[in-house]
Amino acid sequence: MKRPGLGLWLAMGIFALLGVIFLAVSAYDFIAHLDRQVHAITCSFVPGLGAPDTSGASGCHAVMMSPYSAVLRTWTWGGIPIALPGMAVFLYLLFRVADIWARQAEQDAHETRFLLLATLLPLFASLVYFAISTFVVGSICKLCIGTYVASIGVFVCALVAHRRATASGPLPWGRYMLLFGEGVAFAAVPVLLYLSLKPASAVATCGDLMHPEDKAGVRLKLGTNPGGAPAIEVLDPLCPACKGLDQRLAASGFKDRLNLELALFPLDKECNWMVSESVHPGACMVSEAVLCAGDQVPQVLAWIFDHQQELRELGARDPGQLAARIRTDLPQIAGCLGKPEIKARLNRSLRWAVSNSLPVLTPQVFVRNQKICPEDSDLGLDYVLSRVLAGGATAARPAGGR
Amino acid sequence: MAGKGTHVALALVFLLILGVTTGVWVRGAAVRAAQAAAADSGVATASASDEGYCTGDLKKILRRVLTSCGLVKGGSSRGCQPLEARSVAAMSGGDFNALFVPLADRAAIIQFDQDAAEVDAGALALIDKTFADQRGASYFLVVSRASPEGSVSYNRELSRKRAEAVLNHIRGKFNDPELDQEVGLLWLGEEFAQLDREFCKWSRSRPEAPCTPNYLNRSAFIAWIDCRL
Fold first, then answer.
1. Distance (Å, rounded) from C-alpha B26 to C-alpha B29?
2. Mean pLDDT computed over A215-226
3. Strand blocks (E) in A62-188
4. What domains appear along chain A, each with residue ranges and CATH number?
5. Domains identified in chain B and CATH numbers
6. For residue A401, what is the nearest residue in chain B, using CA coordinates?
7. What pLDDT, on the 0 to 100 scale, is given for residue A283?
8. Do A273 and B135 touch (CB under 8 A)?
9. Considering only CB atoms, which chain A residues are within 8 Å of B32?
10. Once rounded to an integer, what is the mean pLDDT over residues B186-194?
11. Which of A38, A208, B120, B150 has CA 20 to 30 A from B229's CA?
Protein backbone atom coordinates (compact mmCIF):
# COMPACT_ATOMS: atom_id res chain seq x y z
CA MET A 1 0.00 0.00 0.00
CA LYS A 2 1.30 3.41 -0.98
CA ARG A 3 2.39 5.53 2.02
CA PRO A 4 0.84 9.01 2.26
CA GLY A 5 3.25 11.85 1.38
CA LEU A 6 5.37 9.70 -0.93
CA GLY A 7 5.23 12.33 -3.69
CA LEU A 8 6.27 15.13 -1.35
CA TRP A 9 9.24 13.23 0.09
CA LEU A 10 10.24 12.02 -3.34
CA ALA A 11 10.20 15.62 -4.59
CA MET A 12 12.25 16.72 -1.57
CA GLY A 13 14.77 13.98 -2.30
CA ILE A 14 14.95 14.97 -5.96
CA PHE A 15 15.53 18.66 -5.09
CA ALA A 16 18.25 17.66 -2.62
CA LEU A 17 19.83 15.41 -5.25
CA LEU A 18 19.72 18.25 -7.78
CA GLY A 19 21.50 20.48 -5.28
CA VAL A 20 24.14 17.78 -4.81
CA ILE A 21 24.64 17.46 -8.58
CA PHE A 22 24.88 21.20 -9.34
CA LEU A 23 27.27 21.84 -6.46
CA ALA A 24 29.28 18.69 -7.18
CA VAL A 25 29.89 19.93 -10.72
CA SER A 26 30.92 23.36 -9.37
CA ALA A 27 33.19 21.80 -6.76
CA TYR A 28 34.71 19.44 -9.31
CA ASP A 29 35.47 22.30 -11.71
CA PHE A 30 37.08 24.31 -8.93
CA ILE A 31 39.11 21.39 -7.61
CA ALA A 32 40.28 20.52 -11.13
CA HIS A 33 42.03 23.91 -11.20
CA LEU A 34 44.16 22.93 -8.21
CA ASP A 35 46.51 21.35 -10.75
CA ARG A 36 47.18 24.98 -11.88
CA GLN A 37 46.33 24.24 -15.48
CA VAL A 38 43.64 25.70 -17.74
CA HIS A 39 40.43 23.65 -17.86
CA ALA A 40 37.11 23.91 -19.64
CA ILE A 41 34.31 24.23 -17.11
CA THR A 42 30.71 23.07 -17.12
CA CYS A 43 28.10 25.79 -17.37
CA SER A 44 24.73 24.29 -18.18
CA PHE A 45 21.33 23.73 -16.60
CA VAL A 46 21.82 20.08 -17.53
CA PRO A 47 25.38 19.27 -16.48
CA GLY A 48 27.07 16.99 -18.95
CA LEU A 49 24.87 17.94 -21.92
CA GLY A 50 25.87 21.56 -22.59
CA ALA A 51 29.16 22.39 -24.28
CA PRO A 52 31.89 23.11 -21.74
CA ASP A 53 33.19 26.66 -21.52
CA THR A 54 36.71 26.63 -22.90
CA SER A 55 37.11 30.37 -23.37
CA GLY A 56 36.38 31.58 -19.87
CA ALA A 57 33.52 33.69 -21.20
CA SER A 58 30.70 32.04 -19.25
CA GLY A 59 29.08 33.35 -16.11
CA CYS A 60 30.18 30.18 -14.31
CA HIS A 61 33.81 31.00 -15.08
CA ALA A 62 33.37 34.59 -13.92
CA VAL A 63 31.78 33.42 -10.68
CA MET A 64 34.36 30.70 -10.09
CA MET A 65 37.24 33.14 -10.55
CA SER A 66 35.59 35.79 -8.39
CA PRO A 67 36.78 36.18 -4.80
CA TYR A 68 33.36 34.96 -3.59
CA SER A 69 33.66 31.38 -4.85
CA ALA A 70 36.04 30.39 -2.05
CA VAL A 71 36.97 31.43 1.46
CA LEU A 72 40.37 31.73 3.15
CA ARG A 73 42.09 32.46 -0.15
CA THR A 74 45.07 34.08 1.50
CA TRP A 75 45.46 31.19 3.94
CA THR A 76 45.57 28.30 1.46
CA TRP A 77 46.22 28.32 -2.31
CA GLY A 78 42.87 28.87 -4.05
CA GLY A 79 40.98 28.95 -0.77
CA ILE A 80 38.24 26.50 0.22
CA PRO A 81 35.55 26.39 -2.47
CA ILE A 82 32.11 27.23 -1.10
CA ALA A 83 30.67 24.59 -3.43
CA LEU A 84 32.38 21.80 -1.48
CA PRO A 85 30.64 22.25 1.89
CA GLY A 86 27.57 23.31 -0.12
CA MET A 87 27.54 19.91 -1.81
CA ALA A 88 27.93 18.29 1.62
CA VAL A 89 24.93 20.22 2.97
CA PHE A 90 22.69 19.00 0.15
CA LEU A 91 24.02 15.47 0.58
CA TYR A 92 23.19 15.77 4.27
CA LEU A 93 19.65 16.88 3.39
CA LEU A 94 19.37 13.91 1.03
CA PHE A 95 20.57 11.67 3.82
CA ARG A 96 18.02 13.15 6.21
CA VAL A 97 15.19 12.63 3.70
CA ALA A 98 16.24 9.02 3.09
CA ASP A 99 16.70 8.42 6.82
CA ILE A 100 13.30 9.84 7.84
CA TRP A 101 11.59 7.94 5.07
CA ALA A 102 13.39 4.68 5.87
CA ARG A 103 12.47 4.97 9.56
CA GLN A 104 8.88 5.93 8.65
CA ALA A 105 9.26 9.08 10.77
CA GLU A 106 7.76 11.49 8.26
CA GLN A 107 4.82 12.25 10.57
CA ASP A 108 7.12 13.14 13.47
CA ALA A 109 7.21 16.95 13.72
CA HIS A 110 10.45 16.82 15.75
CA GLU A 111 12.14 15.24 12.73
CA THR A 112 10.56 17.55 10.16
CA ARG A 113 11.29 20.66 12.26
CA PHE A 114 15.00 19.98 12.24
CA LEU A 115 14.87 19.19 8.53
CA LEU A 116 13.09 22.48 7.88
CA LEU A 117 15.69 24.38 9.90
CA ALA A 118 18.46 22.62 7.99
CA THR A 119 16.99 23.70 4.65
CA LEU A 120 17.21 27.33 5.77
CA LEU A 121 21.01 27.19 5.45
CA PRO A 122 21.11 26.59 1.66
CA LEU A 123 18.13 28.93 1.21
CA PHE A 124 19.89 31.78 3.02
CA ALA A 125 23.19 31.06 1.26
CA SER A 126 21.39 31.07 -2.11
CA LEU A 127 19.84 34.47 -1.40
CA VAL A 128 23.22 35.94 -0.45
CA TYR A 129 25.00 34.42 -3.45
CA PHE A 130 22.28 35.47 -5.86
CA ALA A 131 22.73 39.06 -4.66
CA ILE A 132 26.54 38.85 -4.95
CA SER A 133 26.36 37.23 -8.37
CA THR A 134 23.93 39.81 -9.70
CA PHE A 135 25.09 43.02 -8.09
CA VAL A 136 28.80 42.48 -7.45
CA VAL A 137 30.16 39.96 -9.97
CA GLY A 138 27.67 40.99 -12.63
CA SER A 139 27.38 37.48 -14.09
CA ILE A 140 24.69 34.87 -13.71
CA CYS A 141 25.94 31.31 -13.48
CA LYS A 142 23.67 28.50 -14.72
CA LEU A 143 24.93 26.02 -12.15
CA CYS A 144 24.24 28.61 -9.45
CA ILE A 145 20.68 29.08 -10.70
CA GLY A 146 20.18 25.33 -10.52
CA THR A 147 21.40 25.43 -6.93
CA TYR A 148 19.05 28.31 -6.06
CA VAL A 149 16.11 26.35 -7.48
CA ALA A 150 17.13 23.24 -5.53
CA SER A 151 17.41 25.31 -2.34
CA ILE A 152 13.95 26.79 -2.74
CA GLY A 153 12.48 23.42 -3.73
CA VAL A 154 13.88 21.53 -0.77
CA PHE A 155 12.81 24.32 1.61
CA VAL A 156 9.24 24.41 0.31
CA CYS A 157 8.94 20.61 0.47
CA ALA A 158 10.32 20.60 4.04
CA LEU A 159 7.88 23.32 5.02
CA VAL A 160 4.90 21.37 3.65
CA ALA A 161 6.13 18.17 5.26
CA HIS A 162 6.45 19.91 8.61
CA ARG A 163 2.94 21.35 8.42
CA ARG A 164 1.59 17.86 7.79
CA ALA A 165 3.48 16.35 10.72
CA THR A 166 2.34 16.24 14.32
CA ALA A 167 4.35 16.89 17.44
CA SER A 168 4.28 14.90 20.65
CA GLY A 169 6.29 15.62 23.76
CA PRO A 170 8.90 18.29 24.48
CA LEU A 171 11.57 19.35 22.02
CA PRO A 172 14.28 16.67 21.86
CA TRP A 173 17.26 19.00 22.29
CA GLY A 174 19.67 16.13 22.73
CA ARG A 175 18.64 14.57 19.46
CA TYR A 176 18.81 17.94 17.72
CA MET A 177 22.38 18.42 18.95
CA LEU A 178 23.26 14.99 17.60
CA LEU A 179 21.73 15.78 14.22
CA PHE A 180 23.48 19.14 14.15
CA GLY A 181 26.76 17.38 14.90
CA GLU A 182 26.13 15.03 12.01
CA GLY A 183 25.56 18.00 9.73
CA VAL A 184 28.82 19.57 10.86
CA ALA A 185 30.59 16.26 10.24
CA PHE A 186 29.16 16.12 6.71
CA ALA A 187 30.57 19.58 5.99
CA ALA A 188 33.87 18.94 7.75
CA VAL A 189 34.78 15.64 6.10
CA PRO A 190 35.20 16.95 2.53
CA VAL A 191 36.83 20.18 3.70
CA LEU A 192 39.40 18.34 5.81
CA LEU A 193 40.08 15.86 3.01
CA TYR A 194 40.42 18.76 0.58
CA LEU A 195 42.93 20.53 2.80
CA SER A 196 44.95 17.41 3.50
CA LEU A 197 45.12 16.09 -0.08
CA LYS A 198 45.39 19.29 -2.14
CA PRO A 199 48.69 19.90 -3.96
CA ALA A 200 51.45 21.54 -1.97
CA SER A 201 51.48 25.29 -2.31
CA ALA A 202 54.97 26.49 -1.50
CA VAL A 203 55.15 30.03 -2.77
CA ALA A 204 57.76 30.49 -5.44
CA THR A 205 58.10 33.14 -8.09
CA CYS A 206 59.04 32.43 -11.69
CA GLY A 207 62.23 34.40 -12.04
CA ASP A 208 63.23 38.05 -11.92
CA LEU A 209 63.11 40.79 -14.54
CA MET A 210 66.57 41.05 -16.07
CA HIS A 211 66.15 44.71 -17.04
CA PRO A 212 63.39 46.23 -14.93
CA GLU A 213 64.41 49.77 -15.81
CA ASP A 214 62.16 51.66 -18.22
CA LYS A 215 64.62 53.73 -20.21
CA ALA A 216 62.26 54.08 -23.16
CA GLY A 217 59.34 55.24 -21.02
CA VAL A 218 57.01 52.53 -22.29
CA ARG A 219 55.32 51.56 -19.04
CA LEU A 220 52.10 53.30 -18.10
CA LYS A 221 50.83 54.18 -14.64
CA LEU A 222 47.74 52.22 -13.66
CA GLY A 223 47.44 53.38 -10.09
CA THR A 224 48.22 56.33 -7.91
CA ASN A 225 49.90 54.60 -5.04
CA PRO A 226 53.57 55.61 -5.08
CA GLY A 227 54.08 54.04 -1.65
CA GLY A 228 52.96 50.60 -2.84
CA ALA A 229 55.15 47.72 -3.92
CA PRO A 230 56.28 48.24 -7.51
CA ALA A 231 54.30 45.93 -9.79
CA ILE A 232 54.01 45.50 -13.54
CA GLU A 233 51.13 43.93 -15.45
CA VAL A 234 52.16 42.73 -18.91
CA LEU A 235 48.89 42.79 -20.81
CA ASP A 236 47.30 42.47 -24.19
CA PRO A 237 44.23 44.74 -23.90
CA LEU A 238 42.16 42.33 -26.02
CA CYS A 239 43.11 39.18 -24.11
CA PRO A 240 40.21 37.79 -22.00
CA ALA A 241 42.61 36.34 -19.42
CA CYS A 242 44.15 39.81 -19.00
CA LYS A 243 40.74 41.29 -18.32
CA GLY A 244 40.08 38.51 -15.82
CA LEU A 245 43.40 39.10 -14.08
CA ASP A 246 42.76 42.82 -13.85
CA GLN A 247 39.35 42.17 -12.31
CA ARG A 248 40.72 39.59 -9.88
CA LEU A 249 43.46 41.97 -8.84
CA ALA A 250 40.93 44.73 -8.24
CA ALA A 251 38.63 42.40 -6.28
CA SER A 252 41.47 40.92 -4.24
CA GLY A 253 42.08 44.10 -2.32
CA PHE A 254 45.80 43.90 -3.06
CA LYS A 255 45.67 46.48 -5.85
CA ASP A 256 45.74 49.24 -3.24
CA ARG A 257 49.03 47.88 -1.93
CA LEU A 258 50.71 47.96 -5.34
CA ASN A 259 52.22 50.77 -7.35
CA LEU A 260 50.94 49.26 -10.56
CA GLU A 261 52.29 49.88 -14.06
CA LEU A 262 51.19 48.49 -17.41
CA ALA A 263 53.47 47.11 -20.12
CA LEU A 264 51.67 46.47 -23.40
CA PHE A 265 52.32 43.18 -25.16
CA PRO A 266 49.68 42.77 -27.89
CA LEU A 267 49.55 39.26 -29.37
CA ASP A 268 48.70 40.59 -32.82
CA LYS A 269 51.02 40.00 -35.76
CA GLU A 270 50.18 43.47 -37.10
CA CYS A 271 52.88 44.88 -34.80
CA ASN A 272 54.23 41.88 -32.91
CA TRP A 273 56.74 39.91 -34.97
CA MET A 274 56.91 37.22 -32.29
CA VAL A 275 53.52 35.72 -33.21
CA SER A 276 52.95 34.13 -36.60
CA GLU A 277 49.16 34.38 -36.24
CA SER A 278 47.19 37.10 -34.48
CA VAL A 279 45.88 35.63 -31.25
CA HIS A 280 43.89 38.81 -30.63
CA PRO A 281 43.36 40.66 -33.93
CA GLY A 282 43.20 44.41 -33.47
CA ALA A 283 45.27 44.35 -30.28
CA CYS A 284 47.99 46.52 -31.83
CA MET A 285 45.56 49.30 -32.68
CA VAL A 286 43.88 49.07 -29.29
CA SER A 287 47.31 49.19 -27.62
CA GLU A 288 48.06 52.37 -29.55
CA ALA A 289 44.85 53.81 -28.11
CA VAL A 290 46.12 53.01 -24.61
CA LEU A 291 49.46 54.68 -25.36
CA CYS A 292 47.60 57.73 -26.66
CA ALA A 293 45.55 58.02 -23.48
CA GLY A 294 48.11 60.07 -21.52
CA ASP A 295 46.89 60.41 -17.94
CA GLN A 296 43.64 58.62 -18.78
CA VAL A 297 45.16 55.16 -19.22
CA PRO A 298 43.03 53.47 -16.51
CA GLN A 299 39.83 54.90 -18.01
CA VAL A 300 40.73 53.91 -21.58
CA LEU A 301 41.76 50.43 -20.43
CA ALA A 302 38.47 50.07 -18.54
CA TRP A 303 36.56 51.05 -21.70
CA ILE A 304 38.51 48.46 -23.71
CA PHE A 305 37.84 45.73 -21.14
CA ASP A 306 34.13 46.64 -21.08
CA HIS A 307 33.91 46.24 -24.88
CA GLN A 308 36.63 43.64 -25.27
CA GLN A 309 34.76 40.94 -27.18
CA GLU A 310 33.16 43.43 -29.55
CA LEU A 311 36.52 45.12 -30.25
CA ARG A 312 38.18 41.75 -30.84
CA GLU A 313 35.49 40.79 -33.34
CA LEU A 314 35.82 44.14 -35.11
CA GLY A 315 39.60 43.71 -35.26
CA ALA A 316 39.22 40.30 -36.88
CA ARG A 317 36.54 41.47 -39.32
CA ASP A 318 37.53 44.98 -40.33
CA PRO A 319 40.42 46.98 -38.80
CA GLY A 320 39.00 50.14 -40.40
CA GLN A 321 35.78 49.74 -38.43
CA LEU A 322 37.78 49.11 -35.29
CA ALA A 323 39.69 52.38 -35.77
CA ALA A 324 36.41 54.21 -36.43
CA ARG A 325 34.87 52.75 -33.28
CA ILE A 326 37.84 53.84 -31.16
CA ARG A 327 37.78 57.34 -32.67
CA THR A 328 34.05 57.66 -32.05
CA ASP A 329 34.06 56.45 -28.46
CA LEU A 330 37.40 58.01 -27.48
CA PRO A 331 37.46 61.32 -29.37
CA GLN A 332 40.22 62.68 -27.15
CA ILE A 333 42.75 60.29 -28.73
CA ALA A 334 41.39 60.28 -32.27
CA GLY A 335 44.21 62.39 -33.68
CA CYS A 336 46.92 60.33 -32.05
CA LEU A 337 45.99 56.88 -33.30
CA GLY A 338 48.32 55.51 -36.00
CA LYS A 339 51.00 58.20 -35.61
CA PRO A 340 54.54 56.96 -36.32
CA GLU A 341 55.82 57.97 -32.88
CA ILE A 342 53.01 55.98 -31.21
CA LYS A 343 53.78 52.94 -33.37
CA ALA A 344 57.46 53.30 -32.45
CA ARG A 345 56.57 53.54 -28.76
CA LEU A 346 54.47 50.39 -28.98
CA ASN A 347 57.40 48.72 -30.67
CA ARG A 348 59.66 49.77 -27.80
CA SER A 349 57.16 48.23 -25.38
CA LEU A 350 57.53 44.94 -27.25
CA ARG A 351 61.29 45.35 -27.21
CA TRP A 352 61.16 45.82 -23.44
CA ALA A 353 59.68 42.29 -23.37
CA VAL A 354 62.54 41.14 -25.61
CA SER A 355 65.18 42.70 -23.36
CA ASN A 356 63.68 40.79 -20.43
CA SER A 357 63.27 37.53 -22.40
CA LEU A 358 59.62 37.30 -21.35
CA PRO A 359 57.54 34.33 -22.53
CA VAL A 360 55.27 35.20 -25.45
CA LEU A 361 52.03 35.01 -23.49
CA THR A 362 49.72 37.27 -21.55
CA PRO A 363 48.97 38.17 -18.85
CA GLN A 364 52.12 38.29 -16.75
CA VAL A 365 52.51 39.96 -13.38
CA PHE A 366 55.69 41.12 -11.69
CA VAL A 367 55.81 42.31 -8.10
CA ARG A 368 59.07 43.85 -6.91
CA ASN A 369 60.50 42.60 -10.22
CA GLN A 370 59.67 39.00 -9.31
CA LYS A 371 57.40 37.17 -11.71
CA ILE A 372 54.20 35.70 -10.31
CA CYS A 373 54.01 32.27 -11.95
CA PRO A 374 51.22 32.15 -14.58
CA GLU A 375 49.62 29.19 -12.82
CA ASP A 376 49.29 31.32 -9.69
CA SER A 377 47.58 34.24 -11.39
CA ASP A 378 43.98 33.01 -11.14
CA LEU A 379 42.71 30.99 -8.17
CA GLY A 380 46.03 31.30 -6.35
CA LEU A 381 46.51 35.04 -6.86
CA ASP A 382 45.44 36.15 -3.38
CA TYR A 383 47.53 33.46 -1.70
CA VAL A 384 50.69 34.21 -3.67
CA LEU A 385 50.34 38.00 -3.56
CA SER A 386 49.83 37.99 0.18
CA ARG A 387 53.09 36.12 0.60
CA VAL A 388 55.11 37.98 -2.01
CA LEU A 389 54.05 41.28 -0.47
CA ALA A 390 55.00 39.97 2.94
CA GLY A 391 58.38 38.98 1.52
CA GLY A 392 57.71 35.26 1.80
CA ALA A 393 58.39 34.13 -1.76
CA THR A 394 61.06 31.47 -2.03
CA ALA A 395 63.26 29.99 -4.73
CA ALA A 396 62.15 30.60 -8.25
CA ARG A 397 60.29 27.93 -10.15
CA PRO A 398 61.34 27.45 -13.77
CA ALA A 399 59.63 30.14 -15.84
CA GLY A 400 57.02 28.99 -18.29
CA GLY A 401 53.42 28.82 -19.29
CA ARG A 402 50.67 26.64 -18.04
CA MET B 1 16.91 -0.08 17.72
CA ALA B 2 16.43 -0.99 14.04
CA GLY B 3 15.73 2.71 13.36
CA LYS B 4 19.06 3.73 14.90
CA GLY B 5 20.89 1.09 12.91
CA THR B 6 19.32 2.36 9.70
CA HIS B 7 20.28 5.93 10.60
CA VAL B 8 23.90 5.07 11.32
CA ALA B 9 24.23 2.87 8.24
CA LEU B 10 22.81 5.55 5.99
CA ALA B 11 25.01 8.24 7.54
CA LEU B 12 28.10 6.13 6.98
CA VAL B 13 27.15 5.36 3.37
CA PHE B 14 26.57 9.03 2.57
CA LEU B 15 29.76 10.13 4.33
CA LEU B 16 31.69 7.47 2.45
CA ILE B 17 30.34 8.73 -0.88
CA LEU B 18 31.25 12.28 0.10
CA GLY B 19 34.74 11.39 1.28
CA VAL B 20 35.65 9.14 -1.64
CA THR B 21 34.38 11.64 -4.21
CA THR B 22 36.28 14.54 -2.69
CA GLY B 23 39.40 12.47 -2.20
CA VAL B 24 39.45 11.23 -5.80
CA TRP B 25 38.97 14.73 -7.21
CA VAL B 26 41.61 16.41 -5.05
CA ARG B 27 44.13 13.59 -5.40
CA GLY B 28 43.67 13.65 -9.18
CA ALA B 29 44.42 17.38 -9.25
CA ALA B 30 47.52 16.82 -7.12
CA VAL B 31 48.83 14.14 -9.49
CA ARG B 32 48.20 16.34 -12.53
CA ALA B 33 49.91 19.26 -10.80
CA ALA B 34 53.01 17.15 -10.21
CA GLN B 35 53.03 15.99 -13.84
CA ALA B 36 52.60 19.55 -15.10
CA ALA B 37 55.45 20.79 -12.93
CA ALA B 38 57.74 18.21 -14.51
CA ALA B 39 56.67 19.01 -18.07
CA ASP B 40 58.25 21.62 -20.32
CA SER B 41 55.85 24.50 -20.95
CA GLY B 42 57.03 24.98 -24.54
CA VAL B 43 56.20 28.70 -24.52
CA ALA B 44 58.33 30.78 -26.86
CA THR B 45 60.50 33.55 -25.44
CA ALA B 46 60.33 37.11 -26.69
CA SER B 47 63.21 37.78 -29.06
CA ALA B 48 64.28 40.07 -31.87
CA SER B 49 63.63 39.04 -35.48
CA ASP B 50 66.02 36.84 -37.37
CA GLU B 51 64.60 36.54 -40.87
CA GLY B 52 65.37 33.83 -43.35
CA TYR B 53 67.57 36.08 -45.47
CA CYS B 54 69.98 36.48 -42.53
CA THR B 55 72.35 33.81 -43.79
CA GLY B 56 75.66 33.10 -42.15
CA ASP B 57 77.52 34.99 -44.87
CA LEU B 58 75.26 38.00 -44.60
CA LYS B 59 75.62 38.08 -40.84
CA LYS B 60 79.39 37.87 -41.13
CA ILE B 61 79.53 40.86 -43.46
CA LEU B 62 76.94 42.77 -41.46
CA ARG B 63 78.85 42.22 -38.25
CA ARG B 64 82.02 43.48 -39.91
CA VAL B 65 80.33 46.53 -41.36
CA LEU B 66 78.30 47.30 -38.28
CA THR B 67 81.22 46.97 -35.88
CA SER B 68 83.49 49.10 -37.98
CA CYS B 69 80.82 51.70 -38.61
CA GLY B 70 79.85 52.13 -34.98
CA LEU B 71 76.56 50.28 -34.70
CA VAL B 72 77.38 47.32 -32.57
CA LYS B 73 77.93 48.08 -28.90
CA GLY B 74 81.59 48.67 -28.25
CA GLY B 75 82.24 50.26 -31.61
CA SER B 76 84.45 53.26 -31.10
CA SER B 77 83.35 55.36 -34.08
CA ARG B 78 80.03 56.42 -35.57
CA GLY B 79 79.67 56.21 -39.30
CA CYS B 80 81.80 54.86 -42.11
CA GLN B 81 83.36 56.85 -44.91
CA PRO B 82 83.56 55.36 -48.39
CA LEU B 83 87.03 53.94 -48.07
CA GLU B 84 86.27 52.38 -44.71
CA ALA B 85 83.00 50.94 -45.98
CA ARG B 86 84.72 49.43 -48.98
CA SER B 87 87.49 47.89 -46.92
CA VAL B 88 85.31 46.45 -44.16
CA ALA B 89 82.74 45.13 -46.62
CA ALA B 90 85.57 43.62 -48.61
CA MET B 91 83.41 43.43 -51.66
CA SER B 92 82.50 45.28 -54.81
CA GLY B 93 79.88 48.03 -54.80
CA GLY B 94 77.48 45.79 -56.71
CA ASP B 95 77.83 42.99 -54.20
CA PHE B 96 77.41 45.47 -51.36
CA ASN B 97 74.13 46.73 -52.81
CA ALA B 98 73.00 43.17 -53.42
CA LEU B 99 73.11 42.64 -49.66
CA PHE B 100 70.12 44.93 -49.36
CA VAL B 101 67.98 43.37 -52.06
CA PRO B 102 66.08 41.10 -49.60
CA LEU B 103 65.14 44.23 -47.64
CA ALA B 104 63.09 45.73 -50.47
CA ASP B 105 59.90 45.98 -48.41
CA ARG B 106 61.73 47.25 -45.31
CA ALA B 107 63.71 49.99 -47.03
CA ALA B 108 63.15 53.46 -48.47
CA ILE B 109 65.18 55.93 -50.50
CA ILE B 110 65.14 59.46 -49.10
CA GLN B 111 65.87 61.86 -51.93
CA PHE B 112 67.51 65.30 -51.74
CA ASP B 113 67.91 68.30 -54.01
CA GLN B 114 71.22 68.64 -55.81
CA ASP B 115 73.92 70.04 -53.56
CA ALA B 116 71.58 69.99 -50.55
CA ALA B 117 71.16 68.01 -47.33
CA GLU B 118 67.78 69.34 -46.21
CA VAL B 119 64.97 66.81 -45.87
CA ASP B 120 61.67 67.93 -47.38
CA ALA B 121 58.16 67.11 -46.12
CA GLY B 122 57.79 64.01 -48.28
CA ALA B 123 61.14 62.73 -47.05
CA LEU B 124 60.22 63.35 -43.41
CA ALA B 125 56.99 61.40 -43.80
CA LEU B 126 58.80 58.49 -45.42
CA ILE B 127 61.52 58.46 -42.75
CA ASP B 128 58.84 58.45 -40.02
CA LYS B 129 56.88 55.67 -41.69
CA THR B 130 59.94 53.52 -42.27
CA PHE B 131 61.49 54.05 -38.85
CA ALA B 132 58.20 53.48 -37.01
CA ASP B 133 57.88 50.12 -38.75
CA GLN B 134 60.74 48.60 -36.79
CA ARG B 135 58.96 45.38 -35.86
CA GLY B 136 61.61 42.98 -34.52
CA ALA B 137 64.55 44.48 -36.34
CA SER B 138 67.69 45.23 -34.37
CA TYR B 139 69.58 47.59 -36.69
CA PHE B 140 68.68 50.58 -38.81
CA LEU B 141 71.07 51.52 -41.60
CA VAL B 142 71.34 54.95 -43.18
CA VAL B 143 73.48 54.72 -46.32
CA SER B 144 73.83 58.09 -48.01
CA ARG B 145 75.25 58.95 -51.38
CA ALA B 146 75.82 61.87 -53.76
CA SER B 147 75.62 62.32 -57.50
CA PRO B 148 78.96 62.82 -59.28
CA GLU B 149 78.69 66.57 -59.86
CA GLY B 150 81.37 68.30 -57.78
CA SER B 151 84.60 67.02 -56.32
CA VAL B 152 84.96 63.66 -54.65
CA SER B 153 85.75 65.20 -51.28
CA TYR B 154 82.84 67.64 -51.53
CA ASN B 155 80.45 64.82 -52.35
CA ARG B 156 81.81 62.74 -49.50
CA GLU B 157 81.05 65.61 -47.12
CA LEU B 158 77.64 66.21 -48.71
CA SER B 159 76.64 62.58 -48.27
CA ARG B 160 77.78 62.72 -44.64
CA LYS B 161 75.48 65.71 -44.07
CA ARG B 162 72.62 63.84 -45.69
CA ALA B 163 73.10 60.83 -43.41
CA GLU B 164 73.28 63.04 -40.36
CA ALA B 165 70.18 64.99 -41.40
CA VAL B 166 68.22 61.75 -41.40
CA LEU B 167 69.67 60.68 -38.05
CA ASN B 168 68.97 64.09 -36.47
CA HIS B 169 65.37 63.97 -37.55
CA ILE B 170 64.94 60.48 -36.11
CA ARG B 171 66.62 61.48 -32.88
CA GLY B 172 64.36 64.51 -32.44
CA LYS B 173 61.17 62.80 -33.49
CA PHE B 174 61.31 59.43 -31.78
CA ASN B 175 63.18 60.05 -28.53
CA ASP B 176 64.52 56.50 -28.62
CA PRO B 177 67.08 55.91 -25.84
CA GLU B 178 68.57 52.96 -27.74
CA LEU B 179 69.09 54.92 -30.92
CA ASP B 180 72.86 54.84 -30.72
CA GLN B 181 72.84 51.06 -30.57
CA GLU B 182 70.37 50.80 -33.43
CA VAL B 183 71.17 53.34 -36.11
CA GLY B 184 74.35 53.18 -38.13
CA LEU B 185 75.55 55.59 -40.76
CA LEU B 186 77.52 54.96 -43.93
CA TRP B 187 78.22 57.83 -46.28
CA LEU B 188 79.53 56.76 -49.61
CA GLY B 189 79.76 60.01 -51.58
CA GLU B 190 80.02 59.23 -55.26
CA GLU B 191 82.72 56.63 -54.73
CA PHE B 192 81.27 53.30 -53.70
CA ALA B 193 78.20 51.16 -54.26
CA GLN B 194 76.17 53.65 -56.28
CA LEU B 195 72.49 52.85 -56.83
CA ASP B 196 71.45 51.78 -60.31
CA ARG B 197 68.05 51.82 -62.01
CA GLU B 198 67.09 48.55 -60.29
CA PHE B 199 66.36 50.66 -57.22
CA CYS B 200 63.80 52.80 -59.07
CA LYS B 201 61.18 50.21 -58.06
CA TRP B 202 61.82 50.79 -54.36
CA SER B 203 59.92 53.17 -52.11
CA ARG B 204 61.21 56.70 -52.77
CA SER B 205 60.36 60.05 -51.18
CA ARG B 206 59.99 61.62 -54.64
CA PRO B 207 58.29 58.95 -56.69
CA GLU B 208 57.26 61.49 -59.32
CA ALA B 209 60.84 62.66 -59.93
CA PRO B 210 62.82 61.19 -62.83
CA CYS B 211 64.61 58.03 -61.83
CA THR B 212 68.03 58.53 -63.32
CA PRO B 213 71.18 57.36 -61.49
CA ASN B 214 72.02 60.98 -60.64
CA TYR B 215 68.65 61.63 -59.01
CA LEU B 216 68.69 58.25 -57.32
CA ASN B 217 72.11 58.79 -55.72
CA ARG B 218 71.28 62.20 -54.25
CA SER B 219 69.82 60.17 -51.45
CA ALA B 220 69.97 58.36 -48.17
CA PHE B 221 68.95 54.73 -48.31
CA ILE B 222 67.32 53.68 -45.05
CA ALA B 223 66.36 50.17 -43.95
CA TRP B 224 65.68 48.10 -40.89
CA ILE B 225 67.78 44.92 -40.77
CA ASP B 226 65.88 41.97 -39.28
CA CYS B 227 68.97 40.01 -38.26
CA ARG B 228 70.26 39.04 -34.84
CA LEU B 229 74.03 39.15 -34.63
1. 5
2. 86
3. 70-71, 80-81
4. 6-197 (1.20.1440.130), 220-373 (3.40.30.10)
5. 56-225 (3.30.1330.60)
6. B41
7. 97
8. yes
9. 35, 37
10. 87
11. A208
